[in-house]
Every structure is written in C-alpha cells, then in structure tokens.
Amino acid sequence: MTTAPRGPAGLTARLAEIAPGLRVETGPGATGPYAYDASNYRVPPRAVAFPRTADDVVAVLRACREAGVPVTARGGGTSMAGNAVGAGVVLDFSRHMNRILDIDVEARTARVESGAVLDALRGATAPHGLDFGPDPSSHSRCTLGGMIGNDACGNRSVRDGRTSGHVEALEIVTADGVRAVADHRGLHPVDPGDTGLVARLEADLRRLVEENLAPIRTELGRIPRQVSGYQLHHLLPENGFDLARALVGTEGTCAVVTAATVRLVATAQASALLTLGYDDVVEAAEDVPEILRWSPSAVEGMDEAIVATMRARRGPDSVTGLPQGRAWLYVELEGDDRASVTARAAELLDALEARGRMTGGRVVESAAERRSLWRVREDGAGLAARLVDDGGESWPGWEDAAVAPEHLAAYLRDFRKLLASHGLTGVLYGHFGAGCVHVRIDFDPASEPGQAAMRRFLTEAAALVVEHGGTLSGEHGDGRARGELLQVMYSHRMIAAFTAFKRAFDPDGLLNPGVIVDPAPLDADLALRELPLVDTSFTFPHDEDGLAGAVRRCVGIGRCRSDAGGVMCPSYRATGEENDSTRGRARLLQEMVRGETVQDGWRSTEVRDALDLCLSCKACSSDCPVGVDMATYKAEFLHQHYKGRLRPRSHYSLGWLPLTSALAGYAARPVNALLRGPLGRLLARLGGVTTRRRIPAFASRHALRRALRTARTGEPARALLFVDSFTRAFRPGVAGAASRVLAGAGVPCAPRDGLCCGLTWVSTGQLGTARRVMSRTVAALDDGDDRPIVVAEPSCAAALKRDVPELLGTEAARRVAGRVHTFTGALTELADQRWTPPPLPETLVLQTHCHEYAGFKGRRPADLLRRLGVRDVDEAEGCCGLAGNFGFEAEHYDTSMAVADLALKPRLDALEGRTVVADGFSCATQIDHLAGYRGVRALHLAELLDPAADLPGETP
Predict the structure, then answer these.
(1) What angle do CA 568, 570, 574 make, to 5 degrees?
(2) Among the listed residues 152, 148, 221, the one whose alpha carbon sits nearest the alpha carbon of residue 438
(3) Which of 387, 756, 765, 845 has its CA 20 to 30 A from that of 331?
(4) What pLDDT is attached to residue 391?
(5) Do residues 327 and 361 make contact, with C-beta atoms less than 8 angstroms apart?
(6) Where in 682-786 does DSSP place strands (E)?
(7) Per-residue pLDDT tens digits for 316-351
(8) In this structure, are residues 486 and 472 in contact, taking their beta carbons and an 8 Å threshold?
(9) Over the stretch 182-218, which tens digit does the pLDDT of each residue have?
(10) Under a CB-based contact definition with an 8 Å cutoff, are residues 506 and 498 in contact?
C-alpha cells in the first residue's frame, strides 16, 4: 500500500490527483467553524472536503486510509453529542450532495442524498400528500444523513417513531472505499468486482450475531427511544438481517452514507393542537400515560423559562395560546376529518380535567397561534442555552436521556433531586410522549473543578436512567458526550459486540474515532475554557465576559442555516457557505478569542473575510434563539482590525455619508447632475462604490423646511420627530408626511433636526467617530425632556435604541433609548384609539426593514397595516439585500442582488399594480433599483397614511 504524505498539503495533493475538482480546504478560516457542532466539544479538523458525488467520497476515504487520517461525515452540523467533529478530514455533505434524486409516489418512497435538508424533502413530497415522518426540531437545516447517523426522531415520534423505522436502503462507502447498498436483506456491492469483499463482511456480521444472540435479544430494543449503542437487534434472524436499519444510528463510525431510500407517510387530513398547563413538568409527565391512550401524534413538554425567554427575545406576542401554568404539554391529535378530531380533543380535555392535575387546557384554533407555539418548542435548545431571567449559560451533555413513557414522571422526580444534590439547575423540555427528556444544565465546563463536577454528575445520571430502565440517548446519539458511559448501560459482552461490529466495517478505526467504540473521555476536547477579557468599544452589557461571552452565545443550533422562515441569515441563503452563516462567523470569532487556530487576533484576515458578506442586518439578534448579534460583533471587529490603518475606500465614502450628504444639500442640483455623469462614475469607483447602481438624488436643505412647514398644526407637541440623516438628505417628504399623520393620530410632533444616530460609522466600524456623534446627540436629546422620540427611518431608530446605549454605556444614553419609537411603534402605542386612517388599498406588498424586524418586537408594520384594514399584506420575509452601505460597495453588489432574489424580487416581479410599502431608505432604494424602471416606487408607511398623498403603484 502506498503511503501518502501525512501533512494537510500532502493529503490535498493526493486528493487533487485522484479526485480532480474536489474542493478541499485546509486553512484556519475554512476549517475553524468545523471544529464545532452543537455540542460541548471542539476538535479542529485537518481539512474539510465538499464532495459532489459518491466517487468523491470514495477518493477521500481511500486517500485517508493510505495516510492513516480519520474521516468524519457531517450534515447540518447540529449534533449535540459531538458526533460531527473530528481531527482528520470532515466531509461536508450539505454543500453539494443535497439533492432529492427520486420520489416514487405509488411506492411512497424517496431516494435522497445524505446532505439533503429534511424540509427540502418535505417540500418536495407535500404536493403528493406525503411526508417523511420523523421531524426533529432542527428540520429546517438538519440533513437526512445526520438523521440517519443519530437515528433521529422528532416532535411526532409518538406516531412516527425513529428514522430507522423509515429507512429502506442505504448507499454506503466503507472505510476502504468500497461502495455498497445495505437493505432489509443484507449488503450488496455496487461494483461486481467487490462481491468477495462484501460477502466476507456480511459473513463476519452474521457470525457476530450468532455468537451474541442472548445479549442482543435481552439488552437491545427494550424501549421505543433506545438509541444508545448499535442497534444490532435488527440483524437477528427474526428481524431478517436488516442491515440498513442496523446501520442507522451508528453515527458515521461504521460506514459513510452517501444516499438513502426512505419510506414516506401520508399527510394527515385533519389535526387539532391542545395546550395543557401544569404546575411543573413532573405533574405534566404524570398525565402522559393517559394522553397516550388517545393515540396522539405528538406529546411535547416544556418549561416556563423557555417561554419567558422567547417572549423577551421576540416580543410578548411571539408565544400565544398557552393556558395558565408553569409547564405545558402540547398534544396533537390527527384524523380523517376536522369534526372527529375536534370531538376527540374535547373528550381528552374532559378526561384530563377529571384527573385534576391540569391548571388549564384549551384547543388552539388559530393557525398563527399554532405556528408560534411550535416555534418556541422547536427553539427550545437555543432558548434554554441563554435564559433571560439571569442571563446564565447552560450546556448539553445530558440532554437526551429517555425512559419508557410510563416511567417518565418517576424518573423526572428523581432526576430533579439529583440536580439539586449537585447544586445544579436544568431547563426541562422534550418529547414527553416518547419518554425522551431534553435538558440543558448550568455546568461549568470551563474550569477544572467544573469539569470534575460535570463528570461526577453525568456518571450518576447514567446510573439513574439505567435504574429507571432507560437509555442514555433517545435521538441525539452517544457521540463524545455519552460514549464513555455506555459501560454503565450495557454488559461487557454487549460492549464487545459493538466493538466487533465496528471492527468488521472499519478495522483501522478511521471512521469518526472516539465515538461509541473506544470512546474519548467525556471531558476531553471541551470547547469552553477560561479566557481573559478582551478590551472593546462596545460594552456588551448582556454578556458577563464581554466579547468572549457574546460570541460564545453561539452554541451551534444552526437556525441561521435555514432556507426559509424569519430573516436570518441572508448571506448564508445567498451563498450556502458555512462561513457565511451567523454560526460560522461566531465560531471563527470564538477561534480568534482563543488564539490557537486563528493566531493573529484582531488583525486576522480569516475573520475579516468571514465577516465580509455579513449584511449587518441584525436579524440574528432576534431570530437566533440565543441572541447572537453579528452586526455588533462585525462593527467591533472592523473598528479593531483597521485601528491605525488605511481602511477600505467605501468606509470613507459611505461611512461619512451623514456629513457629505449635509454638505451636498447646499448645492443639491449641481451635485446630482455631476453624479449622474462620467465624473460621478469615476468618483464612485474611487470611493469603492458600485457603478451598477444609480446614486440616489440628494434633496436640497430647503426641501426639509418646506416639508415640515406644511405639516405644522399649532398644537402642543406630544413627541419629538427625530429627522435622521437619510430622511433629511434623500426623502424629506417622509418627514412631512410623518408629522401630518402623527398629528392626525393625536401625536403632534416637534421636529428635531441636525442630529445623527451614528449608524453609518457603526456599520463601517469607525466606533471612535460614532461615539463622538452619538454623545452629541444624546446630550441634545437628554435635556430634561421625556417626550417620546419618533424616528421615521427604522435603521436610525434601531441605532438609537440599541447601538447608542451599548456603545456609550451611560445612563443618559439608556434614557434616550427608552424614549425611541419607530413610526409604526408610535402609531401602535401612542396614537389616539379613535383615529382612523384614510382609505387604504386592500392588498399591498411590504418590505419590513431588518433592523425594525429585529429591534422592535411586537411592533411590526404588517400587524399595524392589518389592524388598519389592509386585507392582504404580502410581506417579503427577508432582507432586501441593500442593507445600508453593503449593497453600494462594489465587491458586494452581486451578493446584494442574490439576497434580493430570495424574497423581494419575486414579489416585485408579480406586483400587478399593487402598492409597495418600505419604511427603510435602503429597502426603498433597492426596490427602485429592481423595479423603478417600470414606474414602481416604494412608499414609506407615513406616505401611505398621509391623506394628502397620492398612492403610486405600478404604472404601465
């Protein structure tokens, strides 16, 4: 056998030789994010490969076997047990091997590549009335390969069980690069030339089963969620030597799955969701056996701390429909028609009320309420990681134990006693109907005493769940977190059988080593460690450890890798690259703070490049369950990175726009004429600004005075109208319209001009200048006047609300921030309830500014428009793509347009004469760029509600 060079360069050269075109990354900027998944562990890989075909996978495995380099298969990277990190080559299947290859409607099967995201499969099968049964909470970004690796279940596992029950065949590559198909009858070679090798492997496996019939029959398959170890009972004679199902849950330790044929289920015709309140989770668990008698499709449990955090993160209306209680169960019933399901739901409520444990219960009729309730349950892992009540952190490690459902209450009672005896607290939630409990615990994995305490607790927790007849893992797999503890659950003979099973497939131990067989210590390779405080300009008031604590908010849940739902993360949706996701950037910042893989700190070009395509939209601060705020981290990094150095040209031309636009207002007409000509294009290029966009026309300094003069009412002002730099420089008419509408709504305003929020200096990382600008603004506004401050431009409102107090850190800044309202917020909270708007269109297209979406929870333009009578608000859910300076920067134009293509452009293409509303100047500018050529102009909400205004739409 030829031995390849063992260094990354040698391995890359070998792969280039045998797999031309295969992308392999070895630099710290590319491999850093792959050192993590959603677990407690950090294992930097030697390289990351992005296969496109099964042949690429064969090439990697053969090259790695030659070099003695381990291989770890990875899907969405959302493993909570450390299953998706490894020190050798990580195979990222999600980037390219993500296709749905075939759907056989008649046979109710689908063939998919292992990197296919579950929601993509569900979207493809839904038109046929079919679905894939298992539905983990990470369904928007988890891959089928990852689900197969862990034997994932999900919220409806009461009905659909585990992934293993839905697998018909697996297309695999063995450690020595042999392609084969595992199905219900055994193992079959893809290449006839490998028949002998495959036959010998199958013979070894059959002999293993024959020699261990007794322990396999007595120790495995005892409860529905017994995922720990290998599921060798599928190989028993009475089960037909089902190798496909036996390989499910092996966590990439035996073979690499490249594709799978899975069985589909029919979509339910009708369903009802009940929410049941209880005093605590144990009381809720006591009712589970009775609920299971009613054949529900889902029985999910949740703690009150998760609900409180969701409401704090996304607004009080983000969770509705819950009855009184401190813990809740969601119960879903399904059937063939609505009437019968509703009747069963009412009967179940009566039966549970008779039992006397509920504090309340109701059937959730509203579709919006059902969505909000499932959202908070699905975000449970992230919400529990960083709660709002004390801001403390909690960690996985014992997040997946399961018992038989009838033993759940007794187990939870003893488990809470165990927590208390160790001085720990845990937030409980999970699949109560299947006896599977998720919990994040306030371990201290950063210190040596904390690690020792964690080890003691986990060892005792393993003994406790076994005492209750349960399993260490119910769907997340054992990984690095629980592999060492398998000896507590299984006999020595069973552990030996697991070892023999792996050795038959992987004699050299190269596939995901340290997991299940020959496991790494559970406290080895922990990601968290004590780090020195980093000196920053932002105060990071919500993070005890400053920037280090802020970037540590990312625990790898990966919601930022979703293709739909919410706004986060527009750059990832446009490029599909891990480094362009919020998670990828946060992980690389964590590496920078550690100073090991990324060693040059603030000067890191790897971190700079990863942050480059961040649009600073702030959507992550709201959509991310743990509240990562990448826009702030980017601003801080740019400030430190370029301190004392020459900056990109656009930082000067666009970052200083408030000053240059004010100067342009003195000679607006000649300036606009100059910018429209060849000299303007030359100036744009010199300033790093794209010439593929038209520069918006500057308004004269007299235009604002005229606009506000026409809005005067003579009434005493109840609020201040903060005239921001964008409104003053480019659309002063919005200030006039806002003043008129607010006056008509009972909120007459006094305009406040000549101040600036400092946003453009923040977004370009010029925080010294931003602080000076903000300090002047705060001094002017915090003059004893406590009237509300209304800001027509959402991005400036968000800067005053959050950036100003977090950068200045003063009581004055916090007082000013507490008075700030968007225009929508002012009409929602301050307007006279008797106010009625002028006639409005029945339907319109809305582009909500990302900063308003993220920073002003519960005060969204869409809600206000519906309340004011607009029947159909077609909201482009997502970033417009311009994002302030981002889309004007020459190097970002293409990404800006790709982001627009995701949500905004399709709606503009199908406009059909409807009115378009966009309060953000960036959003309106992007709309003009996309559709202005056909007469489309976006209105600010103030212009829509201004009785003096015409309502332009799409002109022929």
Answers:
(1) 140
(2) 152
(3) 387
(4) 60
(5) no
(6) 719-722, 749-752
(7) 777 888 999 999 999 999 999 999 999 999 999 999
(8) yes
(9) 999 999 999 999 999 999 999 999 999 999 999 999 9
(10) no
